[in-house]
């Protein structure tokens, strides 16, 4: 080493003259640093159960949340209608991109169950989907059967039908007593928790009422039905078409009957199980109220008829008033009067 150091050494580097101007490649270092700072993909969100009265007949409000502090850029909400059919899983799924942890979905079918699930996503990826939750839209407004309404001076029996295929939880009847003044106040009462499609309502005599019905389920309440007016000034009932003799026809108002003039009333006509076969008669609707009742009947002057009251099971093969289950007054025409 001592001899070597005393020698003069001439070293030549075989390199390019622009060595100092070359840029150093830090790409591997950047990748390493980015891998350290990358946020993880979020965990699965938790979808909430349906809140009461959070739906209308055509819309639903769905909410969810996170149990962690994950960074979330947006959510993906998926839903489809629930079907009990075998191929229900093949129904179309709808997907929405949502920024918040809630969403209102519109253009849905009334009183229909929908299945919802949601996923969260950020720059690193998408979370697993949440558990599925079933929501239901509010029902459609019921339809009051005007021709089935029966009333007297102190009560009314109101019937209606649902417009939905799926059953509802209960019904609410709203009644408003109309005052004599043109712009008077309206006193409103509600009867809630009605399980079926009829209600016997106690009213005050000689009053006018406007009655509406709403259907309810877990999603909420439907809109009000079309109102009907009831006047408690007498007994209101319609004719029962099922009991009519084949020669009788009921007009659209539900009160008026017309009879075909045939020489042989007992001719070969189609007869239903509950209709009169011998007497050209018809029964009215059952009266569900005890007490005193009256009817006003208009008849053509030259018509022979019987009018009275009868039990529901009065024989259909006999004449009204000629048995122990009916009582009638008879109007006959003689040559003198």
Automatic annotation (TrEMBL):
InterPro entries in alphabetical order: B30.2/SPRY (IPR001870), B30.2/SPRY_sf (IPR043136), Butyrophylin_SPRY (IPR003879), ConA-like_dom_sf (IPR013320), E3_ligase_FN3/SPRY (IPR050617), FN3_dom (IPR003961), FN3_sf (IPR036116), Ig-like_fold (IPR013783)
Gene3D superfamilies linked: 2.60.120.920, Immunoglobulins (2.60.40.10)
Domain of life of the native organism: Eukaryota
Tagged with keyword Coiled coil: yes
Keywords recorded for this protein, A-Z: Coiled coil
Residues in Fibronectin type-III domain copies: 45-141, 142-235
Keyword Coiled coil: yes
Domain B30.2/SPRY: 217-337
A Pfam match: fn3
Name of protein: Fibronectin type-III domain-containing protein
Native species: Bambusicola thoracicus
